[in-house]
Design a protein that fits this description.
9 helices; D-Maltodextrin-Binding Protein, domain 2; 319 residues; 7-stranded mixed sheet; 2 domains; 31% helix
Length: 319
């Protein structure tokens, strides 16, 4: 149990952030436009503030590499947005001030070191805006390896339980799911059914986030005949880890052939699947690289499987 304190702190932080996200989701605000034009809401900023505060209080010397920063929020024209963020954060942390919150958000401007957290405060923002699937994704990377991963999925329900789940994995200790209260932990195991025709395949909702035509062709090539299930965010990793799908593919979009994935979009999910017995690589079979840059520059695409069909998928991709 070498990461007991890290795990407890991370779960606490994600539970708090999930409460904020659920509150915001009930009153979906207008999306803001970041410079890259992807939507971001007050929930992204509020979630990052809450998580970064919790992490820094316990691990002040550990860098945090997060998706958001408060630079644009500090401009006068965004004071209405800051007020909204402050309102929601104060529902969780009553004594928080706007300046505190902006500073907490910027705790996520850390750099990659030999030990750092990487955070996506809302992975799947478009899913969040649709009041569909999204994930709060937090991972601890140490000496080049993901050691701990937490996925908070407030809108996800699996076949055996209630809506709202947290997935937790520590290197060498297995992968678990629990409720959003942090209770009822159940160990996860990827599907081991040899009848591939009965297995399911998940992919992203947004067509430009992958190559859906090729993804479906590869799934069929390895014996998965049912139509894909399209899900936003790293919730897809949780679905594979829980044994409710055998394959998740995210192949480079023909529209953006030079795109490289962000580390915070896959780090937490990867360990959740691997600790449940699955396998995660890029489309050439290389392990995903999380510890050299914010982008996975040496990887192309992502392949997530129950492990049993992984070699078949890689072979089909490279034929």
């Amino acid at each position: 149990m070498g990461y007991k304190t890290e795990k407890e702190t991370a779960i606490f932080a994600v539970i708090q952030a999930a409460k904020l996200c659920q509150q915001v989701c009930q009153e979906i605000p207008p999306a803001l436009a970041k410079q890259d034009k992807s939507p971001v809401t007050v929930a992204d900023f509020g979630s990052q503030a809450i998580i970064c505060k919790a992490l820094k209080e316990v691990f002040p010397d550990t860098s945090i590499v997060g998706e958001e920063d408060a630079q644009e929020l500090r401009q006068d024209i965004n004071q209405d947005t800051v007020a909204k963020i402050t309102h929601y954060v104060q529902n969780i942390i009553p004594n928080a001030t706007s300046n505190d919150i902006l500073d907490w958000i910027d705790y996520g401007n850390g750099t990659i070191t030999n030990r750092f957290w990487t955070l996506d405060p809302i992975d799947g923002t478009k899913g969040f805006l649709r009041q569909d699937q999204y994930a709060i994704a937090l991972a601890l990377i140490e000496d080049g390896e993901v050691k701990l991963g937490i996925l908070g999925c407030p809108a996800l329900s699996l076949n055996d339980g209630e809506k709202g789940l947290i997935f937790v994995a520590v290197k060498g200790e297995g992968s678990y799911k629990m409720t959003l209260t942090g209770k009822n932990a159940t160990k996860l195991q990827v599907v081991s059914n040899d009848d591939i025709s009965r297995l399911r395949f998940v992919e992203g909702v947004e067509a430009n986030h992958g190559n859906q035509e090729k993804q479906n062709a590869i799934a069929k090539a390895v014996g998965i005949t049912s139509d894909s299930i399209r899900v936003d965010s790293q919730a897809k990793y949780g679905i594979v880890a829980a044994g409710e799908a055998a394959l998740y593919l995210r192949l480079p979009s023909p529209k953006y052939p030079d795109y490289r994935e962000n580390i915070w979009d896959h780090a937490a999910g990867s360990i959740v699947v691997e600790e449940a017995g699955g396998k995660v690589t890029d489309m050439t079979g290389k392990p995903l690289e999380f510890a050299t840059a914010n982008k996975m520059n040496d990887n192309r695409g992502v392949v997530v499987s129950n492990g049993l069909i992984h070699d078949l998928v890689i072979k089909a991709l490279n034929n």
